[in-house]
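Margin note from the TA: students keep mixing up input and output lines. Inputs are the sequences; the output is the structure of the whole complex. Example:
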Amino acid sequence: MNNIPKLWEVYKDYFDIGAAVNLETIKGSKELLATHFNSITAENDMKFVSVHPAENSYTFEAGDELLAFAKQHSMKMRGHTLVWHNQTTDWIFEGENGETASRELLLARMKSHIDTVVGRYKGSIYAWDVVNEVIEDKSDVWLRDSRWLQIIGEDFIEHAFRYAHEADPDALLFYNDYNECNPEKRDKVIKLVKSLQDRGVPIHGIGLQGHWNLSGPSIAEIREAIEKYAALGLQLQVTELDISVFDYEDRRTDLTAPTAEMLEKQANRYKEIFELFREYKDVITAVTFWGAGEDYTWLDDFPVKGRKNWPFVFDEKHEPKTSFWRLVDCSEN
Ligand code: HXH
């Protein structure tokens, strides 16, 4: 399988092709990554809990190693993620003797975190997911309840973008979220981004995570989301693409391999989705898978712990699946 088309090369006139990586996959999937991808994102190693475990301690060894891998293979690198409700250590929200930190203290710590992390990778990481997942899924609630929101108030979002821009004025700054094609959530993302733009906050793109499955979202829903987001005048990146073979509610655990029907449906989904992405090549600047080969995916543990999933276009042995061949067949008719 040495002479198959390279995914990034097939798409070089459209958008970058990325993969989320970690210290294991840059070794175990080295060939696959170097051959088919021209961009990487650290799956976990640049998150708050990974790089800033205590107030005066930063741990950049893993992130640095991933960046070195990107450079070695002439790949770009995206940064993920600066301000999020998950995988963030408690100390940042705590003041003296177990009290809650004040708004001023938390803002100062946020600034210091962003300065240090964005500053370290200035000139190397070209885009950051500055704020991740702050929109609430429930339709009657606006923002997700989090300690960032409770302690600072709604403007924690704009401060994060302003600090990131100060730390690296050349970095592209993204708002990133999931269920991004759900019309109610989509409209809330749009309301948030518009309010940031109205106040002159530096934001350059919207990250559509793209944790999708065989049934949804529909091509029509994805198209409508792309249209509406693009109308804000920002660039779009698909930041965490995977197509689960299970619907979200489906908790079956009996499969040791994907069924033929699943693989055929998935191949058609990949084909339709990338056809759509290609139509919007002027606004979509990168499509990143949340992994590369199916020997490892976070979906092996979500939403059902220990259940294998097969969401990518390369299988557990890194061989191209039917889905891969539908992606490289770009004849537009
Ligand atoms: C992403 N979240 C993160 O951005 C990424 O950093 C991580 O590595 C993997 C996925 C997606 C996500 C969002 C919410 C969630 C699970 C995953 O939790 C849910 C809980 C109940 C219902 C739906 C989602």
